[in-house]
UniProtKB/TrEMBL annotation:
Pfam families: NAD_binding_10. This is NAD(P)-binding domain-containing protein. Gene3D superfamilies: NAD(P)-binding Rossmann-like Domain (3.40.50.720). GO terms for molecular function: oxidoreductase activity, acting on the CH-NH group of donors, NAD or NADP as acceptor. InterPro entries: NAD(P)-bd_dom, NAD(P)-bd_dom_sf, Polyketide_Oxido-like. Residues 7-106 form the NAD(P)-binding domain.
């Protein structure tokens, strides 16, 4: 599968590039500043697309140029405080618009992974509401909802040898073993590399993925 990664210079995005390459995907990066990409990764990328992830036209242009089959958005963070500013809602809107338009033009929906979280930020609730409002089969979306993600190692290619989706447990709709108590959030820390490998492995399933149309909670095994 040809995958376009938004936020490819970030903590998760950079490791996702490596995980996708290791899993045999064709990979393009969508970034504002190509100079920030890891030098160990750039020789292996099919293309480096420069643009603003808040602009649907720029994302769609990259999708059409690369002829990608899937988009993974790791760009944008929820605001740490209720009064803070976050670009995440604008980025999610742009990704959804670009994916929907491309799907309509191609006659088949695009595979899309978005990032949410266990914590109850308004931005994540907004992302979920937007996905729920989409027409059926208009976009093959999934949303990963981890707790805190910590690095296993510096960004490398190949990915750290210990990185594997087998090191996490995934469950749709609610986090694994969740009781509804907010203090549980601290127990849902995972490694960036394990989450990256989880997404990369799932994309190999294409439209047949069990996570299409689902909110996916994860925790360390």
């Amino acid at each position: 599968m040809h995958v376009l990664v938004l936020g490819a210079t970030g903590n998760l995005g950079s490791r996702l590039l490596s995980a996708l390459l290791q899993r045999g995907h064709t990979v393009s990066a969508f970034v504002r500043d190509p100079a920030k990409l890891s030098s160990s990764l750039t020789p292996h990328l099919t293309s480096i697309e420069t643009g603003d992830a808040r602009k649907a036209t720029e994302i769609k242009g990259a999708v059409l140029r690369t002829k990608c089959d899937a988009i993974v958005n790791t760009a944008g963070l929820a605001a740490a405080a209720p009064w803070g500013h976050s670009d995440l809602p604008a980025i999610v809107d742009a990704v959804i618009a670009a994916a929907l338009e491309t799907g309509r033009e191609r006659g088949s929906p695009l595979r899309v992974w978005l990032l949410g979280g266990v914590k109850f930020f308004p931005e994540h609730r907004g992302t979920w509401a937007k996905l729920q409002s989409l027409p059926p089969n208009s976009m093959l979306w999934s949303i990963l909802c981890p707790g805190e993600m910590r690095p296993l190692s510096p960004v490398t290619y190949p990915l750290a040898s210990a990185a594997s989706a087998e090191n996490i447990v995934a469950q749709a709709s609610t986090p694994p073993a969740w009781t509804g108590r907010f203090h549980q959030v601290v127990g849902y820390a995972t490694k960036l590399e394990h989450c990256a490998d989880f997404i990369a492995g799932d994309l190999a399933e294409g439209a047949g993925s069990q996570w299409v149309g689902r909110k996916v909670g994860v925790r360390a095994r």
